[in-house]
C-alpha cells in the first residue's frame, strides 16, 4: 500500500498556524521555569540554547512573535545543546501542558478532541508531523494526545 489508511475521525492541525489554538505559534503567554513565554514556540526554540548560549536563549524568549522565535531557533551559527534530540519531546510536552493550564480555551479545545487521533498535518516534517505520505512519526500529535490524557486523569482526581 502506497499510503497508509487515514483515520477518518482524526483531528488535523498545523502547529505553525497562528490562529490554531492547539498550535505552537498562537500568542498564549504562560510562565514556565520562572519566565514568561509568549508562545509554546518561543519556549521550544529557546530551550535549544538554554545551556549553550544564555544570551541567545533570552533573545529568542523576547522575540516579537513565534515566527521570529522559530527563525532564531533555526540558526546554524549557535551551538544547540548536546542532549537536544533526547529532550525535545519533553520540552514540547512541558510547554503544551503548562499552556493548557494557563489558557482554558487551549485546554478545552484539547479535551474537545475526545479520544480522536490528533495529526500535525505537515507535508515536510516527518518527525513532528505526519509527512506528505502520512508515514511520519507525528510526535506533535502524540504530545497533544499525551497532554490530553494527563488533563483527563487530573479531572478524575
Descriptive notes:
- The protein has 157 residues and is mainly α.
- Helices cover 44% and strands 8% of the residues.
- It has six helices and four strands.
- The strands form two sheets. The chain has a two-stranded parallel sheet.
- Strand 2 (30-32) and strand 3 form a beta hairpin.
- It starts with 10 loop residues before the first strand and ends with a helix.
Write the layout of secondary structure elements.
Layout: E1 11-13, E2 30-32, E3 35-37, H1 40-47, H2 54-61, H3 66-73, H4 84-102, H5 104-111, E4 118-120, H6 139-156
Parallel strand pairs: 1-4
Antiparallel strand pairs: 2-3
Helix pairs in contact: 1-2, 1-3, 1-4, 4-5, 4-6
The topology string of helices and strands comes to EEEHHHHHEH
Measure the end-to-end span: 44 Å
Structural class: mainly alpha
Uncertain regions spanning at least 5 consecutive residues: none
* Helix fraction bin: 40-55%
**DSSP strand content:** 5-15%
Count of DSSP E strands?
4
Number of DSSP helices? 6
Question: TL;DR?
Answer:
44% of the residues lie in helices and 8% in strands.
Write out key terms for the chains shown:
44% helix, 4 strands, 157 residues, mainly alpha, single chain
Amino acid at each position: 500500500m502506497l499510503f497508509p489508511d487515514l483515520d477518518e475521525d482524526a483531528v488535523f492541525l498545523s502547529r505553525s498556524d497562528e490562529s490554531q489554538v492547539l498550535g505552537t505559534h498562537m500568542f498564549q503567554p504562560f510562565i514556565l521555569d520562572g519566565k514568561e513565554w509568549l508562545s509554546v514556540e518561543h519556549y521550544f526554540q529557546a530551550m535549544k540554547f538554554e545551556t549553550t548560549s544564555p544570551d541567545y536563549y533570552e533573545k529568542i524568549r523576547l522575540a516579537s512573535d513565534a515566527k521570529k522565535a522559530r527563525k532564531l531557533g533555526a540558526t546554524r551559527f549557535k551551538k544547540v545543546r548536546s542532549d537536544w534530540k533526547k529532550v525535545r519531546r519533553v520540552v514540547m510536552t512541558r510547554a503544551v501542558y503548562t499552556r493548557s493550564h494557563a489558557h482554558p480555551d487551549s485546554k478545552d479545545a484539547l479535551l474537545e478532541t475526545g479520544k480522536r487521533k490528533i495529526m500535525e498535518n505537515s507535508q515536510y516534517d516527518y518527525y513532528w508531523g505526519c509527512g506528505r505520505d502520512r508515514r511520519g512519526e507525528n510526535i506533535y500529535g502524540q504530545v497533544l494526545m499525551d497532554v490530553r490524557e494527563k488533563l483527563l486523569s487530573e479531572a478524575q482526581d
